[in-house]
Specification:
Structural class: mainly alpha
Strand content: under 5%
Radius of gyration: 18 Å
Number of strands: 0
Number of helices: 12
Length: 222
Amino acid sequence: MSARFFSPLGSDVVKAIFLVCLADGLVGISYGSLAVAGGFPLWVPLMLSLLVLAGASEFLFIAIVGGGGSPFAAAAAGILVNARHLPFGIAVKDLVGSKAMSWLGCHIMNDESVVFGISQPTHEKRKIAYWLCGVGIALFWPVSVIAGAYIGQFIPDIKAIGLDAVFPAILLALIFPALRSRRTRIPASCGALISVAAVPFVPAGMPVLFSLLGLLAWRNRK
């Protein structure tokens, strides 16, 4: 993509997208390191990063199979975690493109590209932000997985350096400006509380789906 393509976004949005892609890359390093340290050959996390392109599902797959679970059970758990992509798809149906391009547009759909896509003020900017973030992550993620696989050979304990905390921290920093709006703050806060309350009672990956109930906390008022 040329600079001319994404120039309508403004430097602040482009910078924010780059930081999120970079954060994703740091998480990918952690993922690649953990996968190889768990006994998986490099091609397994690499193919998952290219074909699945969904970090939470990939981590879950590695954890379940590495713990002796069935690959089919791991795949089913990954599908459950990614059930949130159903409402995502509805939200960005006009951004993914048409015909053959829509296949790629759907493949690069993730939490970050959806957030950047739907948060822009015009359709043109929404589409550019969605594709820039989606393609950026699609490039950063597999490259960082490869890097992590090699870096992990020289790090005794990859969790000790805290790479798994970088991504959530950057995302949290990015959403703070949106929370200034009462219309965003109330549903987001309610969704967070519901999600946290659900953690002890539901499988991993499900609490984030329960957080969608926070949307019911807002009613349009004239």
